Amino acid sequence: MSNRKNKKRFLHMSAIILILSMALLGCSSEAVKNSGDPSSESSNMITFAWPRDIGDLNPHLYNPSQLFAQSMVFEPLVSYQDGGELKPHLAESWEISDDGKEYLFNLRQDVKFSDGTRFNAEIVKKNFDAVLNNLDLHSWLGFIAKVAKTEVIDEYTFKLTLNEPYYPTIQELAVVRPVRFLGEAGFPQDGDTSKRIEKPVGTGPWVLDEYKVDEFAIFKRNENYWGELPNVEKIKVKVIPDAETRVLAFEKGELDLVYGEGVISLDSFKQLESTGSYETSISEPVATRQLVMNTNKEQLSDLRVRQALHYGFNKHAMVEGVTSGLEEKADYILPTNFPYTSDVDATKVEFNVEKAKQLLDEAGWKLSKGKNVREKDGKPLEIELMYNSAESIQKTMAEILQSEWAGLGVKLNIVGVELTTQVERFKANEFEMNFFSNYGAPYDPHTFVNIVATEGFGFREAISAYPNKEELLNQIAEVQRTTDEAERQQLYTDILGSLQEQSAIVPISYIKKIAIYQKDVSNFTFPANRDEHPFKGISVNK
Fold this sequence. Notes:
Oligomer: single chain
Largest sheet: 6 strands, mixed
Number of strands: 23
Number of helices: 16
Strand order of the largest sheet: 14-20-13-19-17-18
Structural class: alpha+beta
Distance between the termini: 56 Å
Radius of gyration: 24 Å
Helix content: 25-40%
Strand content: 15-25%
C-alpha cells in the first residue's frame, strides 16, 4: 500500500476518531415523532443526559450521529468483548482462508429488523456496498480500502474478499460505524446513504420512539429483538449541553445516570461520590494519555534528554492530584487490557531527579553557576509543549511539568490552542511536545501502530531519530499482513517495547470512563467497546 494512501486514510481518521474520543460531538436531525413532550413517562425507564443531540442515526456516517445511540439501534457481524475477545453477533461464525484474504460469514437465521423484515446475506451485501461506494468517507478504516469483492453465497452466507491479507479485519468489523446494518426501508431510493437515510431501521435491542431535536430522544425496547431483551422498557436521552447543569439535574433526581468521558468534572464526580447517596463505577482503562516528543527537534533528538524528562517528573503524584485518583499512572504506552499488549517488555520509569540530572549532564546540557536554564553550545534547553486549551487536565499537567522540569534546568513553554489547531499542528510537524491519547477499543493496538508509521500525522516525526526506525516501520507493515498468531504477538511485543524504550512517546495516565447513578439503578456495566452504549443489562426499580 502506498504511503500516500496510508496518509490519506489516517489523516481522515485523526479528524474523526480523535475528536470522537472526547465523546462530546454531535448535532441534530429530525426523525420519528417530533413531538413537544414525551407522551408517557414509563416507570421502567432510564433517563440520562448527553451533551449533544443524538443526530439522524445514519449507521454509515459520522457526526452528527452519536456513537452510543447508533450502537443501540444498529448491530455488527462481530462484537468486541472484554480482553479484546471477538465474539459472534449477527454472524454466528466465520472462516478465514489460509492466505488471510477470504472471510466467509455464516449469518444468524433468527434475526429480523425492527420493521419485521429479514436480516440475510442480501442486506449485508447491500450495506457493505453502500459503504464501499463512498470509499473516500470511510478509507480511514483499514480493511475498507482492501475489499476486492462482496458476495452472497446463499441466503445466510456472505463472503468478503480482500486484495491482500489484513488481520485486523474482524476487529474492525466490531466498530460502531460505518459497517453496521440498515434495513431495506431505511435506504433512500437511489441506495446512496452518504447523505441521508429514510429512517433508522436496525436489528438492535432499541428502537427510536420519540424525539425532539436538541431536547430529548426516547428509545423503546425492541420487543422482537432476536437476542436477550433489555431489562428496562425505555431509555430517555435528555440533551443538556452544560456539565454543571447535568450535575444539578442529577442531584434533583431528574436523571438516573451520568455516564461517559468528560461529561462532568472530576471534582463534581468526587463530590457526588462523597455524599454516599449514589452508586458510582469507574471503568478499566479505555486509553492512555501520552506525551509525544518530536525527535526532529534538535533538543529532543538525544535519547538521554528524552529519558531525563521522563525521569524528571513525579508521574504518580501528578496523576493522583490532577485526576483526584480517577486515572492511574501509566507504565505502558497502551493499556495492558488491550489485545497483544500484556506481554510488552519495557522499562518502567520511576521518578528520579538525580538520574534525570545525570542524563542531561551526559548529553552535554550543563547548568552554569548562577543560571536557571541548562545550555549546550550557547543554546538554552528550551522546549514548547502544546495542549488543548479547552481541556483542564492537559492544562494542569502542562503547568506541573513546567514547574518540575524547571528544577532540572529545563525551560518549558506551555501553549494552549484550540483542539482543531492542536490536531493541525501535530499533523504538520509544527510541534515540539504534544498531548495525545490513543483511540481505544476496538481500534487498538493496530490503529495506534499504524498512525505511528504514517507520514504527516505527527508520530512519524516523533520517531524520526530512532536508530531502529526502518526496522520498526517494517515490523509495523508486517504485523498487519501476518496470518500467524504467535508471530503477530511477537511483533507487537517488539514494536510497543521499542517505541517505549526510545522515550519519544511517554505514557502518563490511563483514561477511564465514569458512571454515577441513583440507588434504584442496578446491574450497570461498562462495555468493552469504548463507543458502545452501556444499557445491556441495566435495571431500575422505581
